[in-house]
Amino acid sequence: MVFLSYGLPSLGRWVREYGILNIGIFFAFFITGLTLETKSISGHLYQFKTPFLAMISSLVLFPLLAWILAGMVLSPEFVIGVCIIATAPVTVASGTVMTFIGRGNVPLSLFICVLGNFLAIFTIPISLNILLRFESTIELPVLKMLSGLFLKVLLPTILGQLARPLIKHKIAPYKKAFSIFQQCVVLLIIFNAVASSTERILQAGAVVILVLVFMVFLHSLILAMNYGISRFIRLDRPSTTAFTIHTSQKTLTVSYLVWAGYFAAQYPMALIPGIGYHLTQMIMDTIIADRFRLADERASAVKDGKI
């Protein structure tokens, strides 16, 4: 996608002009609602402590740490980008998949996902206004952002959930196609973001590499923080896996909506940190999930007397 965006930047302008990506994002969240099994999270509704701390970590501590650290090493445009991805909600699909691979608590992972995506719609405008007030003179229209995120994120998800009982038995054969479509939307976001700022990225040169290295460091720090929190509150092994992985992830899709709606014209490279974080979490969390799986296998072997 990155190479394609440099070869065909005009295609990126065509995608933006006809709103193709916005349509794709709407259907991606509709599919999310259609395929999200929320019944399995009912057992965690009364376990207040764990999801509460997950939200504090994801929506308060993460943005604050990201803003402080980014301000030390990155230019203002990239600091804005770091704040955008840091205030975004957790991922929908990949966090749950990684939790499953790591033999974690999937219902808890889903609960963190649903609660985080609902609350973030309301916290993103407020958090960005607070953080960016120190970084620049940006004043974001909070109500406009709330309504925009509701229409583009929550509304299609709710519509998908309402349609799910009617057609859930018919969509099973299409789950793989749905997943491919959602991944294509993410790829199109990367293409569109890079195509919008190809000249600026070339001029920035080594600074972009610094941004990518910073995002690797940031994700490593957040993973360590969430693992520490899960151990401090004495979660069991499956819940530790879910808390560590899913609370550390961020969705590029919502970050794109915020960037495209309020920052793209003035700060065309501000989505680069989000792209870097997305790539980082996909690679690192696959490794982390595999480590959790191996630890679970060893623990099971010890319990069964095989080791």
Descriptive overview:
The protein has 307 residues and is mainly alpha-helical. The chain has a single domain (8-299), classed as Na+/H+ antiporter like fold (Up-down Bundle). The protein is 79% helix and 0% strand. It has 14 helices and no strands. It is globular and about 60 Å long. The termini are far apart.
Question: How would you summarize this macromolecular structure in one to three sentences?
Answer:
The chain is an all-alpha fold and 307 residues long. It has a single domain, classed as Na+/H+ antiporter like fold, CATH 1.20.1530.20. 79% of the residues lie in helices and 0% in strands.
List keywords for this structure.
single chain, 307 residues, mainly alpha, Na+/H+ antiporter like fold
Oligomer: single chain
* pLDDT < 50 stretches: none
Major sheet: size, sense and barrel closure?
none
Number of helices: 14
Average pLDDT, all residues? 84
What is the terminal-to-terminal distance? 47 Å
Number of domains: 1
- The 3D shape can be described as globular
The CATH architecture classification is Up-down Bundle
Helix content: over 70%
Category by helix and strand content: mainly alpha
Kindly estimate the percentage of residues that lie in beta strands according to DSSP: under 5%
Radius of gyration (Å): 19 Å
* CATH C-level class: Mainly Alpha
CATH T-level topology: Na+/H+ antiporter like fold
DSSP, total strands: 0
- SSE ordering: HHHHHHHHHHHHHH
